[in-house]
Amino acid sequence: MRIMKTAIEMKDVRKTYGKDIVAIDDLSLTVGEGTIYALLGPNGSGKTTTVRVLTSLAVADEGDIFLFGKNLKTNLLRNWVGCVAQASGVDPMGTGRENLMLQGRIHGLKGKDLKNRVEEMLERFNLQKDASRLSMKYSGGMKRKLDLAMGLIHHPKLLFLDEPTTGLDPEAREDLWKTIRQLQTKEGLTVILTTHYMEEADELSDRVAFMNEGRIVAEGTAEELKNKLGGDTLSIQCTNNAQADRAKEILKVFYQVTRDEDTLYVHSKQGAEELPKILKILESDQTEVRSASVSRPALGDVYLMYTGRALREETKQ
Ligand SMILES: Nc1ncnc2c1ncn2[C@@H]1O[C@H](COP(=O)(O)OP(=O)(O)OP(=O)(O)O)[C@@H](O)[C@H]1O
Predict the structure, then answer these.
(1) Is the whole-model pTM more than 0.90?
(2) 120 alpha carbon to ligand 1 midpoint, in Å?
(3) Taking the chain, what is the end-to-end CA distance rounded to the nearest angstrom?
(4) CA distance readout (Å), 80 to 108, 162, 186, 227
(5) Pick the CATH number of 232-295 from 2.60.40, 3.40.50, 3.30.70, 2.40.230
(6) Could you report the per-residue pLDDT of 144-199, keeping only the tens digit for each?
(7) Rounded distance from Cα 102 to ligand 1 centre (Å)
(8) Domain spans of the chain, in order of start
(9) Which residue has the CA at smallest separation from atom 4 of ligand 1?
(10) Domain spanning 6-225: which CATH class is it, in words?
């Protein structure tokens, strides 16, 4: 049996800002080497702070962090870590190659080593033929790939991606997922990503952690998390938000209900049997229902259960 080594271990980590803001609280998590790991949570739940302490951009007040078995407090481990922030680090006035050369120099690469690594990265990310073009002329997907290449120029073992596909069209998103998967399978890279897209976490990551108020409230593979919820999800769309709000007040006496605008999500062990009963309750209250359906819980339903909010709501803020 292959024993998976640990890439990240956080033990009871706490980080506060000023006197009152506890950004992360007694946070413990373990990420296996070569894993794609997704952090999800509402705005302000502590995802960025977690990434900041892991990448040495912020110092934890309490607790221990180990990267590949080495304590972050007593070792300089920055070179093991690559970061691709949500705001692109690409200089639009430089060509793709110039951006990579600059990033390589920042990391201390020189001469032949630098040149070879830049060409390797251009080839790796399929950017050779555009290497001499100004990056401001690149498409969104190409810019993201250049960002990734810049994050990997110094051979990190651990890559942090902050919302890697935000703003990309579905085709560019799929393409980037493929690239990230190849980094994992071919190069054994460990990837931590934060995302606002539930399907990204579901499709791309091996494990998912939901954060809420600075803590991890659920963790596991997407399948494990969905199974934990069990049962069915009933989606009941009302004619407007006010109707849905009223219906929620009635149903919450009997069921676990969450609302996202005009739609209610009711979790039930026996969805198909419960649906007619629910519709009857709503009919007797004269609530107007537009449509209703039963489905297996999706990752978004699990997220709703643990955070009380729909992830789609977060992206609007
Ligand atoms: N530099 C800072 N100074 C003061 N408070 C901060 C700072 N950075 C974060 N916080 C606070 O810490 C808490 C956690 O914030 P954090 O940015 O880690 O959350 P997040 O989950 O990444 O949110 P988002 O999805 O909005 O990026 C929030 O209450 C936030 O206001």
Answers:
(1) no
(2) 36
(3) 46
(4) 14, 17, 18, 35
(5) 3.30.70
(6) 999 999 999 999 999 999 888 888 888 888 888 998 999 899 889 999 999 878 88
(7) 30
(8) 6-225, 232-295
(9) 17
(10) alpha beta
